[in-house]
Task: inverse folding
């Protein structure tokens, strides 16, 4: 039990802490760390690999680099649970694929003794930190950690260094119809577009319209509202003349947040501070700052 807890704490320190060398797995040359070279055929893909798509153009660029310079960063592996003579890739499958195309016979590896859950976590960490995953792949990886390894959203947030609201927003993408998820996966829709369609009456039809008309995220958000963004207030808001101090305060707050801030003060009745955001990412950042400054976790 204590050994398992030790491993769990290691994950919270991030990817770099988990890549510390084991004495048997590294040969140190000056200040460079070189992984053990193993035959390329002894490596096998990771069944927990969150990345589903490998861009052919990017892979070709990596092949050319490997042909000229070799594999500069060791591939992170563990002993295969099914075959002790093989190594299962934890992180670096794209390098392994490119090395095969470059016709290398051996590749450098770093061997770590990790569980299935840790293998998935490490794969997610590497891809998320490198921004290699699509929004859908990221959401599916989070869902797998929750389903297979009983992680909570709070635990996931600590592991991958994201906010809890980011995890929640990612998971909500999985509620969309398959047709919309296909558009998200192949890049026709951005994550912002897709989130705007969650809860819409016919998200697949709206997604097709967004793609065909090349609508912005803001336009998609209006389109995804129950009324299609047609609702308007009965009349124009009443304008209230603001004094110089209030206007200066609005400017200072707007500059500090990077978002439009409006201060509406009513004599003897208090007032309101209104922050206008354009995307869910901006709302996420506002929440993060408020929670951080309040001292809560």
Result:
């Amino acid at each position: 039990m204590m050994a398992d807890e030790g491993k769990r704490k290691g994950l919270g320190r991030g990817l770099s802490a988990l890549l510390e060398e084991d004495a048997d797995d590294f040969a140190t040359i000056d200040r460079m760390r070189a992984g053990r070279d193993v035959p390329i055929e002894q490596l096998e893909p990771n069944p927990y690999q969150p990345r589903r798509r490998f861009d052919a153009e990017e892979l070709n660029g990596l092949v050319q680099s490997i042909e000229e310079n070799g594999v500069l960063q060791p591939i992170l592996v563990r002993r295969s649970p099914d075959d002790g003579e093989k190594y299962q890739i934890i992180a670096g499958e794209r390098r392994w694929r490119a090395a095969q195309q470059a016709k290398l016979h051996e590749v450098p590896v770093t061997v770590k003794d990790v569980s299935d859950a840790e293998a998935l976590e490490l794969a997610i960490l590497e891809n998320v930190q490198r921004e290699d995953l699509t929004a859908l792949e990221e959401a599916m990886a989070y869902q797998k950690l929750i389903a297979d390894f009983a992680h909570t959203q709070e635990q996931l947030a600590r592991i991958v260094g994201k906010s809890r609201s980011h995890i929640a927003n990612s998971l909500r993408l999985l509620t969309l119809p398959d047709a919309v998820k296909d558009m998200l996966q192949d890049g026709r829709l951005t994550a912002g577009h897709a989130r705007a369609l969650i809860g819409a009456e016919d998200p697949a039809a709206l997604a097709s319209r967004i793609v065909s008309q090349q609508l912005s995220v803001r336009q998609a958000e209006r389109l995804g509202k129950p009324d299609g963004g047609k609702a308007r207030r009965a009349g124009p808001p009443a304008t209230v003349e603001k004094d110089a101090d209030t206007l200066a305060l609005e400017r200072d707050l707007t500059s500090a947040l990077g978002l439009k801030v409006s201060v509406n003060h009513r004599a003897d009745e208090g007032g309101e501070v209104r922050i206008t955001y354009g995307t869910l990412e901006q709302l996420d950042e506002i929440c993060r700052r408020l929670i951080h400054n309040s001292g809560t976790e």
Observations:
- The domain at 2-160 is CATH 3.90.1530.30 (Conserved hypothetical protein from pyrococcus furiosus pfu- 392566-001, ParB domain).
